[in-house]
Specification:
3 strands; alpha+beta; Ribosomal Protein S8, Chain: A, domain 1
Length: about 100
């Protein structure tokens, strides 16, 4: 994000598809203008730098796997004990710069 005064337009790709709640929430909380691009699965956020940063925070919170698909994405641990799977997941996520709480 550039350190400039004035309006910025930021293209924000969405991982899980367009969600009307994201646009509405950004407008309410971030004081920014939002437009959607359905062909690129992205939103365009226009505003001051602080507003853009708040909008990016909103997107990181709301751009998530829909509940209907979340059940499909879950898996059963048929062959790996839960403790072993947990240890392996923490190791894997740590290599992706994710730090568990």
């Amino acid at each position: 994000m550039p350190e400039i005064a004035g309006k910025i337009m930021q293209v924000v790709p969405l991982r899980y598809g367009l969600n009307p709640n994201i646009e509405k929430t950004i407008v309410q909380l971030a004081d920014a203008q939002v437009s959607q691009d359905t062909t690129q699965n992205a939103i365009f956020v226009t505003g001051e730098r602080d507003s853009i940063l708040r909008a990016l925070d909103v997107v990181s919170l709301l751009d998530s796997l829909p509940r209907a698909r979340a059940k499909w994405a879950s898996s059963n641990l048929n062959f790996v004990p839960a403790k072993d799977a947990s240890t392996q997941l923490v190791t894997l996520l740590a290599t992706r710069a994710f730090q568990p709480r």
